[in-house]
TrEMBL record:
The lineage of its organism: Bacteria, Bacillati, Actinomycetota, Actinomycetes, Kitasatosporales. It comes from the Bacteria. Residues 499-550 are annotated as: Disordered. InterPro entries: P-loop_NTPase. This is Membrane protein. It comes from Streptomyces laurentii.
Amino acid sequence: MSRRPLPRILSSGSDRIARSRELARTAADGATDVLQPLITVSRGLRKLAAAARARWAATPKERRGPTLLVAAACLLVVAFLPYGPLLALAALMAAAAWQGRERPVARTGPDPAESTRLQGLYEALVPYLSLPEDPAPLYAHGGDWTAVFADQAFDEDGRLTRLRLAYPPYFMDGEPAARARVEQVLHAKSGRGREYLFDWDEEGNRLTLRVLPALPTTIAAQRFVTVPGETVLGFTDADAVQRTVPVRAGDGAADAPAVVWRTGPHSTEPHLLAIGRPGGGTTTLLRSIALQALAHGDVLVIDGDGTGGYACLTGRDGVLAVECGLAGALASLEWAAHETERRLLVANQARQAGYPAPSDTRRPLWILLDRPGALGALAAAAGRPDPQELLDVPLRHGRAAQVTVVVAEQYDSADTLCETVRSQTRARIALGPAAPEQIAAVLGAPPHTTPVAHMPPGRGYARLGTGPVVRLQVPATPDPYDDATSEAHCQAVLELLPPRRNEPAGPDTAAAPMVVAPGPSPEPDLDLDADTAPTLRKTPGLPSPVPAEG
């Protein structure tokens, strides 16, 4: 059975209706645009009238009569002024237009998606912040998150960036394990891949969570504004330290908060231990420390890994030796132990004679030992003593002798460190990604932030003595002889290197001017007795530890 076509009036009716609706909508939009000033003024007049009624209702009855009299007098004065009514009408229309303007709606709370995220976070905290016997728990399944959450903030992607929450007084906020469980839940529910800071207020039962920005990696090696005895280990958050130093970062200059390590006779943390993963930046840290130490002292480098990362220091002024082999390392460390004893003996004799210590005993000596575990394995295979045993004297008595020891090791070889190194290195640094338990084992205290899985080289945490754990970013100090080094960073390191011995400073090895402390007053001629002078052996390439006779 064939279908008959619809009548023309029925087939074209829907098109006519659609066109009519479109015309009506266009006319309405045009009329709205034309009448927009009138709509704005009308809206403003309604607001002004509502405000006048509210003001009249709030006026006491005994003051309404005088108020009407004053208003009538004002209207009479305006009526008799030249152009008074016209000016009053213009002022009224301007006030109505101002009051009737469209204003952006201020956001007063989270949107539905953010409220759902906060409710989910609230539900996840219920098992950790509630007890069954609590008659009025702050956290309960199906409860209201607005009663405990405040000061919340979100980023453009809808992820939480700041939150302050209240917890019940019976929560054991003094136990690290209880805190860690809550921090783990907040970290997981707020979004991984970011670093969070947890600020516990035990007195007020409040916990503040906020996302920390990434530390800048654009600060390269340079001459920092410090005094002798101060070393910039790296840079941290602005609220973590009280000192900033001017730096060149990228194409500009700025003041960056620095982690400054103080060494010398009055230091409470005279030696440093750095633990990291391969590629974490421990070698970069030692290079940065060496470049700063050469401005005021002498440096002895022991490269246990033998990768050649310190070849740029070989033969430079102030660099006593750069040893990579086992024999050279043992000889250099033995010399360092005897030199420490010599400095102590000479300084003691000078003090007993009433004179200041000689200048050669007051010039800082830095011993940088990278990967002692590798040297220890070689020494055990060769039947030689562990090089760490030779660090006993510099570590125990180095502070009085102006000898500073810096040891760098990796996490997988940290158990090879001897007890003396562990007990005498009270300045600690942990570099590279690691579990919170590993970082706490190195620093002696857990970090207040959540470590991220991926970190740039030189990124980690630092703790000086019993101070707080702070984030750290070591200045970019790569090997200038490495082909993968950028030209800017390579030039920055080369500018800091002192000239090579017996060679004039060239354009590629020019060093910044070194600040030399003024010499002491005339020193006495000290003679060591044969009974008190230790037996010292001169190591090739190192200065003799025996003082010159006057």
